[in-house]
Amino acid sequence: MDAEQSETRIELRDFVDLSRNVPGLDISIREFATTMQEYRAGISEITTKFKILDEDFKVRLDRNPIHTITSRLKSPRSLLEKMQRKGLPLTIPSMRENLHDIAGVRVVCNYLEDVSEIAEALLCQNDIRLVERKDYITCPKESGYRSLHLVVSVPVFLSDRSSEVPVEVQIRTIAMDFWASLEHRLRYKNEDVLQAHGPEVDDIRARLVESAHLIAAIDQAMQRIQDDIERLADEQEEERRLERIGSN
Fold this sequence. Notes:
Elements: H1 3-19, H2 29-61, E1 66-73, H3 76-85, H4 92-98, E2 103-109, H5 112-123, E3 129-135, E4 148-157, E5 162-173, H6 174-189, H7 191-194, H8 199-247
Helix pairs in contact: 6-8
């Protein structure tokens, strides 16, 4: 049994366990399984697109803008808890209509400019439809969080049906991912402490925001260094071209 099959079995077992204790749940095991398969296919489609784009950049421009690509599918517990918090009917149609973050893909890029280039390269594809765009790089969250969030709809074709599947895409730099990962770890493990009020907690929040600003400044500095290196490389190549012309 491969990792994906094992994950699917665990997912279905968790759904069965939860269904016994969730009043008002109107989703059969078969409905849930087939729906999750569509979202997994959506993840696969988007992940493949990013891999192809990265390879295309490598062949045409001799650089790889993408550092890593990861993905996740919301767990049954997370799905049902979110629907309950929103007061939504616990049905598949309700889930499809109201939740756009069931399937998620995260792309970590090397430089700031890579984020916008990769995003636009995805969005210009004729089978991709933009559902929602939130630019937390231009307008960071109050916490200091930076990332570009896109919800895109992609068609998936299965053996007996086709479907438009929404996938949440987060695109960020290595530096943004570093800050977000550590901030999430600190917040997740110390949620009760950080939800409290007081001068020390306020100071910690302020220091987290300050660290986000420092990392953003480093991001910009690394982009400038990359730009300067590319400019020097272009100048060097032009000089060699002129020397070849002169020698002929």
